[in-house]
Backbone:
């Protein structure tokens, strides 16, 4: 008898549950879905220590009407601490260079914390610096975004251009 009351109470309590599933909480707009498709990340590891991390989103497929006068990326950079204030360093301070298919960037604009463009890249923390990076237009269908340092190594993120 007790079991039937407990079972009845459980059935009544659970019958009021919502029909929504957990995946309803993760819906994204179309731009964010395309940004996730274009997200790439890799790290440079030397002697089992992470020396640098590059995470980037290729923006041309995300906003094709806005970014058409070059190849655009949002890049998040992390470098191991070398007594440098994370808010003041540049790529050159750490001896790193960035290139796309061998060409240097035309411009790198830092993206501040409150900038809405930062929401396109899911990596959000105080150890990273975020940049909007512009390269000249590349005619090749394959893009290779390379971060390298002569002492620690390099990392390459590969992308495909839309045809």
Residues:
């Amino acid at each position: 008898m007790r079991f039937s009351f407990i079972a009845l109470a459980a059935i009544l309590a659970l019958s009021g549950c919502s029909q929504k599933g957990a995946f309803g909480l993760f819906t994204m707009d179309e731009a964010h879905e395309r940004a996730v498709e274009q997200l790439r990340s890799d790290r440079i590891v030397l002697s089992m220590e992470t020396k640098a991390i590059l995470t980037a989103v290729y923006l041309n497929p995300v906003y094709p009407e806005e970014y058409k006068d070059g190849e655009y990326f949002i890049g998040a950079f992390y470098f191991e601490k070398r007594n440098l204030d994370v808010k003041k360093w540049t790529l050159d301070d750490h001896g790193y260079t960035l290139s796309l298919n061998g060409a240097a960037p035309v411009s790198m604009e830092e993206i501040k914390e409150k900038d809405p463009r930062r929401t396109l890249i899911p990596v959000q923390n105080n150890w990273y610096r975020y940049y909007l990076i512009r390269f000249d237009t590349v005619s090749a269908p394959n893009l290779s975004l390379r971060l390298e340092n002569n002492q620690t190594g390099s990392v390459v993120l590969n992308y495909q251009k839309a045809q």
Q: What stands out?
A: The two ends are 69 Å apart (CA to CA). The mean pLDDT is 82.
